[in-house]
Amino acid sequence: MNSRDLLQLTPVLPVVAIADLAWAVPSAKALKRGGIGVIEVVLRTPVSLQAIQAIKEQVPEVIVGAGTVLNEEQLVAAIDAGAEFIVTPGLTPELLRAGLNASVPMIPGVATASEVMVGMQAGVSTFKFFPAATSGGVAAVQALSAPFADVSFCPTGGVSPSNMQSYLDIESVVCVGGSWITPHALMRTRDWGAITELASAAVTLAGDIDLAVKS
Ligand code: 3PG
Questions:
Q1: How far does residue 89's CA lie from ligand 1's centre (Å)?
Q2: Residue 85 to residue 44: CA distance in whole angstroms
Q3: pLDDT score at 149
Q4: Is the predicted pLDDT of residue 209 greater than 70, yes or no?
Q5: What does pTM read for this prediction?
Q6: Most buried among 23, 133, 140, 148, by the most CB within 10 A?
Q7: 15 lines ligand 1 (CB under 6 A)
Q8: Pocket of ligand 1 contains residue 178 by CB under 6 Å
Q9: Which helix (H) or strand (E) holds 79?
């Protein structure tokens, strides 16, 4: 599956930081119960690789990827742990090369036209637009979509229920990403029911948008 097809499976890609390995499986199940079956576990905690492995093994109905991948070493470690896709906050020549040779899709982060062009030269057409809000938000994604007709974006960073629809309305936006569905406070208190509700609310909100039109 290529990265665009993968992101088309969900209108919202949760950015999940797992500080305690015991959160991994229940949080993935909670998201799935809320209707979200693709999740990004960020490599920002000591247990993130083990969390990816646990989700891959114990929640096979969820597609789990690794986020905040900064270099080739982390990319290899994430794939070894079972990551089914890779998300990076930015792009470097090293990561692009590694992504091209990887066995799973990679969604590199971009924030400028030049970065999109560097990615396109390497054959990438689906990008994380990051950090979305501070890089110009909806207007920036719209502006970037004009010259790059075949490019798709997953805006992430400052996306919330109050602005996700404006992003999803853009033809080139395949999904949005964000951490609001798995806030640290709810993870820490293991309030999986509340996480399911946030997931379900996000899916319902996105339901008004005809994602099929974008296929
Ligand atoms: C990311 O890693 O993609 C961002 O930190 C998520 O941004 P958000 O916390 O504003 O949703």
A1: 9
A2: 16
A3: 87
A4: no
A5: 0.95
A6: 23
A7: yes
A8: yes
A9: helix 72-81
Share of the chain above pLDDT 70, in %: 96
> For tokens 């982060």, what's the residue?
109
Q: Can you give the pLDDT at residue 68? A: 98
What is the atom index within ligand 1 of the atom nearest the CA of 42?
2
Residues with catalytic function: 40, 128
Domains of the chain and CATH, by start: 3-107+158-214 (3.20.20.70)
Contact 158 CB / ligand 1 (< 6 Å): yes
CA dihedral 35, 62, 179, 86 (to 10 degrees): -140
- Ligand 1 proximity of 14 Cβ (cutoff 6 Å): no
Mutate to test the pocket of ligand 1, among 179, 182, 186 (most ligand atoms within 8 A of CB): 179
Interior CA angle at 70 toward 161 and 119, to 5°?
80
* Ligand 1 centroid – CA 178 distance (Å): 5
pLDDT tens digits, 52-71? 999 999 999 999 999 999 99
Residue 111 Cα to ligand 1 midpoint, Å, equals 14
> What pLDDT score was predicted for residue 207?
85
Cβ neighbours for 74, distance < 8 A, ≥ 6 positions apart: 43, 66
pLDDT tens for residues 98-135?
999 999 999 999 999 999 999 999 999 999 999 999 99
Å from CA of 131 to ligand 1 middle: 7
User: What pLDDT, on a 0 to 100 scale, did the predictor assign at position 208?
Assistant: 60
Q: How far apart (Å, rounded) are the C-alpha atoms in residues 200 and 50? A: 26
